Structure formats: structure tokens, C-alpha cells
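Blackboard transcription, Thursday session:
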Amino acid sequence: MNVNELLSLKGKVILITGGTGLYGRPMFEALAEAGGKVITASRSLESAKQVFPELQNAGLDVHAMQVDQADHDSVLKLKNDIVKQFGGLDVFVNNAVARPMRKYADPLEAFTESMRINATGMFDITREMADVIAQSGGGTIINIASMQGMFGADFSLYEGTEMDSPPDYHFHKGGMITLTKYLARKLAPKKVRVNCISPGGLYGGQPETFIQKYAKKVPAGRMAGPDDIKGVVVFLASDASAYINGENILMDGGMHA
Ligand SMILES: NC(=O)c1ccc[n+]([C@@H]2O[C@H](COP(=O)([O-])OP(=O)(O)OC[C@H]3O[C@@H](n4cnc5c(N)ncnc54)[C@H](O)[C@@H]3O)[C@@H](O)[C@H]2O)c1
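(Written on the board underneath:)
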């Protein structure tokens, strides 16, 4: 088959959670630019409405729905709405994250809240969307983890700033990477592939001292930009990656090479 056809997402119905966020937006765009019919779902429809005119003017087939992934009824409603409106689902990009914990010393309640959304809720929406994909004849799930789910934090990066690398984040992102491998085996009989992307830090809004220190640690000499994730998510969503399953792609500019 021609490689452009293999990489095309034409005819695929794709759901991305948090598709208007920092990494979500370029993935949302890329999946639609590659020909997909792409739905973003997050807690607020308002943020979707802000980016829609630009995307629709560019001729992209984009849609918005509402979900709170920490609320089982809301996840089931999204599942039903997708089936009703689109007839099924081919690809799920599991991208949403909540950050209730900011620092190591934050109260335990912040850790518990993080698990409610980023562990239990994340698993719930993954299992329900896997079910729709299986019923639609098969497809793929792409989990968005983080390099921080693979490695301990480099705390020297945060010196001289108010920033920290919170422990819940390392915990649930590490879990997501292992869950990817579990689900790849569990869902293979249903023709659902499950892969993961572990990005490094995306440039934008960090203190200058952090940005400079970070850039020095990366062979690429910079933080990630929005275009860096576009190709890898389209590849994993497409039939070009049909023989890749249970994989975690580290996208860190060579930081851990
Ligand atoms: N930004 C980075 O530097 C970076 C680095 C590595 C990995 N990542 C990963 O990339 C993904 C996107 O990160 P981001 O920085 O773009 O995040 P972001 O904070 O910009 O966006 C997160 C999105 O998740 C949604 N969300 C939060 N709680 C939700 C819930 N309960 N139900 C439904 N939606 C919910 C929010 O509404 C928002 O749209 C995350 O999985 C994150 O861990 C980000």
C-alpha cells in the first residue's frame, strides 16, 4: 500500500480528551489535518468553542463534546453520544490530565484527588472507549504519558523557581505506561492496539531560568514545540503502525539518550 494511504486518517472517527490544551491542541489539529473526523472532549465546551472557528475555517472536520473523566455517568454519556452521533469510534487519544498536586509537600488530599481523575477516571474512560472501538471492529488507543513516568525528576531544573515535580504525576504516568502494555495484550483479541507517547516538557509560560537550564540538558538544545508531537500521534493512530502494539515512544529531544 502507498505510504501516504497508510498514514492517512481519512474515514476514521477519533476522540481526544483535552484537545484544546497545550499538547492537546496540536494533536487535535494534526489528527484532523491527516483526514480524521476528530472530537475533543473535556470538562468545558467553552474552550473548544474558542479554537473551533480557526480549525473549521481551515476545512478540518472537528467536533466537541463534554466529559468529566472522573464521573462514570459522564463517561457513559460520552460513549453513548459518540455511538449515536458518529456510529462508532476508531481511535482514542487519552490525553486529559488534572494537576491538583503541585509540590512534594502538598496535602494527601491533593494526591487522592489526582488518583480519582488521573488513575481511576483515566482507566474508566479507557475501558469504555476500548469497548466502543472493539464494537466498531477494532482500532487503536494512544495514551499520552510523560518522560516523568519513566525517570526520576531532575530537581536541579527547578532551583530558583516556584516550580516542583509533584510525586503523583510520576506515579500515575508510570502507571499509564505499564497499563499500556497490559491493555495491548488484553485487547489484542478485540483488534484494539494500545500504544503510548511519553513527551518531554513543552515550551510555554515557564520561568526563563527554567527554560535555559532545561535547554542545556537536551541534545536538541530546546524544549519541545507544538509541531514535535504531530507526526508521532498521527503515525500511531494510522495503519502505518499496524504492527506496533504495547510500545512507549519517548519524545524528549534526546534528554535521556
Ligand atoms: N505540557 C507538558 O510539558 C507535558 C509534558 C509531558 C507530558 N504531558 C502530557 O500531555 C498531556 C496534555 O498535557 P497539557 O500540558 O496539554 O495539559 P493541559 O493542562 O493544557 O490540558 C489538560 C486537559 O485535560 C482536561 N481535563 C482535566 N481534567 C479533566 C477531567 N476530569 N475530565 C476531562 N478532561 C479533563 C482539561 O480540561 C484540559 O483540556 C497530559 O497527559 C500531560 O501529562 C504534558
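Lecturer's comment: The longest strand covers residues 192-199.
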